[in-house]
Amino acid sequence: MSNPINRLIYLTSEWKTWNIFHVILLSPILEEFSYRYALSSFNITRIKISLSLILSFHISYLLYFYKFHQLCEVNLVLHVLSLYGTIFFVAIVLFLIMSLFNKQLAMFENKWNTHPMVIFYLSAVLFTIYHVYNMSVLFFLSIFAGAVIFGYTRIRLGFGYVIVLHVLWNIVSSFRLLMS
Length: 180
Description:
Blueprint: H1 4-35, H2 44-68, H3 76-99, H4 102-106, H5 109-114, H6 116-132, H7 140-156, H8 159-173, H9 175-179
């Protein structure tokens, strides 16, 4: 493995395996818990989980993109720990902070239940914004359409179905990655 070319081939293979696992399985699960877990009747715990994950996704992605990316370009372990470690750490801190405000969050129950479409489309817009960080803005409408389909599936069929749909969507979307 001391040969630089062998090391590069190994790293390329390692990154491809990670990207397939990340894009096809890990991301859909985390994104569904973030953006669509709370899309149901008012539940403070679900809302805190979703909000803390949504905020941590955006904060962590910006931190990773602007600060950690350069540290992690050649080391998969640092990449995973910096991106997902930051996401989970920030989410836990935000969840604990929000737990201090349960009574204040409970005051939103009436608004939550009387304006479900606002919450539905806000979730879709936030999902789209998160994906525009690493994709062309030209894909904005297609990502938004996917977010609406995922949200509709979540509401009509349930949380497990939307995870399966998201995994299948990412398999089809990543076909080129799988074939290379």
